[in-house]
Structures are given as C-alpha cells and as structure tokens.
What we know:
Layout: E1 2-6, H1 14-25, E2 29-33, E3 45-49, H2 55-60, E4 65-70, H3 79-89, E5 95-98, H4 101-107, E6 115-117, H5 124-127, E7 138-143, H6 153-161, E8 166-169, H7 174-183, E9 185-186, H8 195-199, E10 202-207, H9 221-228, E11 233-235, H10 239-248, E12 253-254, H11 273-278, H12 282-285
Parallel strand pairs: 1-2, 1-3, 3-4, 4-5, 5-6, 7-8, 7-10, 8-9, 10-11, 11-12
Amino acid sequence: MLIHFIHPGSAYLPELAAYGDFLAALGHSAQVHSRPASVPADAVICWWMCGRVPHDAARRLSHAFHIHEYASASVPPWPKVKDRAKRALQPVPQYRLFQNTWVRDRLGFSDGVPYEFRDMGVEPSFLATCARRAAPEFDGVYLGDMQRLRQFVPLLTALQQAGQRTLLIGEPPVDLRETLHTLGHVTGRVPHGQVPTLLRRARYGLNLVPDQLPYSQQTSTKLIEYCAAGLPVVSTDYDWVRAFEAQHGARFAYLPIPDMAGCVVPDVSTLAWPRVLERLALWRRLGLCP
C-alpha cells in the first residue's frame, strides 16, 4: 500500500522520515507531496500534515481515506483566530491525529471523527550516541528553529560574556545571521543524520522555548534529542517541560541561574520513533498491520 503524505509547508518534519521507515518495515511505502495537485487521482490514503486542507483537493480525492494530523496548534499572530478557522473551514476527514490533549482541545473539533494522539519521537541513532561521547568542545548546544532565538539574543549574549561557548545547529534567518555568528558557532543547515555527532560536541543542551502558547504546551523535540544523546538539559521554565520532567524522572537546570549539579538525564528509549509509531491504532484501522 502506498500512503500519500501531503506537506505543503516549509517546516522540517522529522516524523515524515520516521513514517516512511516504519511503513517500509511493514511492507508498505510512503510518498511525500509538497503540492496537493501532485497526489494521483487513484490515491487510497491521503495523510495531511495540517495546515490548511484545500476543499478542491479534498473533493478531487474524495474516494480516498483522509487523515488530518495536527502536530501543533496555530502559532502567533492571531493563533485563536487561525484555530477557529481550521475548525470551521477544514474538510471533514475520516481520522485525525493530535500531538496531545492540549492541541486537541485547543482546536476543538466536535464532529465525532475518530482520533488518537501521536507525540513526537527521536531517531534511534540519537540513542546510540550515549555510549560514544568524547570530550566536549562547547559548553552549550542549541538545536532547532533559529527564528525562535530572536527573543533569546540577550541570553546568548550573557552566556558569551560568562565565557560559555555555544554551538548553534541550523540555518539562521538572514536578519539574525550576523548576530548569531558573533554569539556562537553556527553550523548552517546540516543533514539530520549528522545531528547526533554534533550534539556530542557540547556539555549540555539548551532548550530555549518561550513561555507562550502554543509552545509552552507542546513537545520540545530538541529536548528529547538532547536526552537521547545523554546531554544534561538547561531550559527555560514552562508547563510542558515541567510535566515531562516529572513523567520521566528527569531533573533539568532552569534559567536564568541554572544549577547543573543535580541534573538527571532520563531514559527516553520508549520515545524512539519505531516505538512511538507502533502504538498507533490507526495502522490496524487502515489494515496495514495485524
């Protein structure tokens, strides 16, 4: 069976590669489309990474089984307006996936469509780095969307002034490029497979997330990846990270004055992508596994 994933946006979604690997292990295949128009008319399963689902595409593919996946609620500006628009205007699918209960409740669909939750996971290669850590070259490492570092420039400046060396993994936006290059070592965009090795070059991972909805209620993939690589975590303080810490028996150091002495790195092996995905009931619903 060929499953068509539709992802018109520009955001990097590691789950797409994880879905492809998982389906291949079951004897099926995945194809990712950046444009709905490229999905063939005879598609059997259409899996939308929402975003907006165009009504004309839904009509053209009306014979297919449609899955709408919401890995996030809408982000500023006007996030509540955007979420209300999705609730009112999206075509009705046969199934929905939400990252967690907060995302489900925030979107507020009440049409009786079956759903379940699919949280974020980590590539198994990250877990393998724990046994192979070398002497670090950097103090902290930040992995993720560098647009979000805009409000953390004063923090990065303070770290630099305190003699801390920071590794920044990713491609900065044009207007932040010069600033970030002066505050840390910027790698630029790198293949995801190289990230575990880069993480091993630092003593701790920086989980810089604003205490602002929806970010404060959604999974920090970078934090899971830091833990998988065996890195202690220095974090901003917000609801999701405190809940994760309690659930997994972790102990993180919190800004603005992190105490690294008591850090506990949790075992996140149950969050490896194959284990996260095998828990989905959707596969049986689709007839893709026993």
